[in-house]
Amino acid sequence: MPHPTRDDPRTRRRALPRLRRDHFIDLRPFRVSPAFARLWVGSTLAGLGGQLTIVAVMLHVYELTGDTFAVSMVAVVGLVPMIIAGLYGGMLADAFDRRLVALIAASVTFVSTLLLAILAWSGHESVGWLFALSAANSIVGATKSAITPRLLPRELLPAAAALQGITVGIMVMAGPALAGVLVAFTGYAWTYSIDVVLMTSLFLGLWTLPRIRPEGEIVRPGLESLRDGMRFLKRAPNIRLQYILDITAMTFGHPIALFPAIGAVLLGGGPITTGALTASIAAGAFASSLFSGPIGRYRWHGIGIQRSIQVFGMATAVFGLVLAARALGWFAPERVDESHANIALIVLAMITLAVTGAADNVSAIYRSTMMQAAVPDTMRGRLQGVFMVVVAGGPRVGALYAGTLATLTALWVPSLVGGLVIVALVGVLVRLNPGFRAYDAEHPTP
Questions:
Q1: What domains can be seen in the chain, in order of their start residue?
Q2: Model-level pTM?
Q3: CA 144 to CA 92: how far, in whole Å?
Q4: Where are the transmembrane segments (predicted)?
């Protein structure tokens, strides 16, 4: 049996301090596991750099083509590689050293970003190259999520998930705005190059990890490994239901695709309103992570997921009501366009969206903790891979729902109807699965 490393939580369990009773985010994961702290810092900086490149590529494609459809295809071309990488990367994480698998995945992203920078500096960039390298850039695996439970004791997994919410908040709030400034003042080559530099921090975080071999029976990557994971999922009602609940929320409560039209014709303010509405979701997620102390102390994670998603649904419905108020002429100025905005309703809309971001992040904390604590180590990579497919596919289905229903009715209808559907459907699904409501974090069962 290998000797535990100094970063192994088994050598530190007895030294854990008593649970904190304040309302701020629990920072003990940084103190308990320096390896987790290094990985978190590296992932946050690399994620911020990734947002710079994502936004820069979209701006770059629009500059070369002048076609908004071509810009939308940047996300589409990366969907299939993301799904394949999620599923296959999960199988690799369950069969090989997870540190090595994560390093290989990071290397693919690093090389693709470096090629983007080289092409931009040399002036040989093209739409085809931007599409191809963006697709390669989307190849991220489920390995890092499967690593976390091996670095921390189970009782600190909710705190680790909350810290991930901080990472996402920083990425989504700061990344797009910073990308726009960098492209405007320095150009695409410098923007891609800055991402290359930030990516090196992820390598430092991964390189200093101990070897993390999967525990239990190892199944060779391939179709049988995937089937093995699906068979386990059939026997894991709690994990299966959290997937279904997340898809429900993202399908009926993801109106981001409508934000440009809302800013242009309904609330006014144009792109500024679009950016403000988008940023408010991330701000809500960031704030809920910052004040996440009580979340980690609540042991009934199934109930926590149900209630947070239903709050998400109610806030989404209220957002629809705010839009309906403008469409029906309530509290509306005589003129609304890119230069004239309904500030009062925009502020109300931002508040409701901030609530959706906060509620979704609380749900994500409980869902991530349940996944990492209840799923056996030998299955963790594959189940994280399936979860990545859910996370990647849900918002895209949501965009289709919102766009179709708004075209057939009005811009406010998808959010109002979708929010009410979420509240009702989640209530019914959880009621039909009493074991989910009884899920106890101190005795996790998949």
A1: 24-214 (1.20.1250.20), 225-446 (1.20.1250)
A2: 0.78
A3: 12
A4: 39-62, 68-88, 100-121, 127-147, 159-183, 189-209, 243-266, 272-291, 311-331, 343-362, 383-403, 409-430
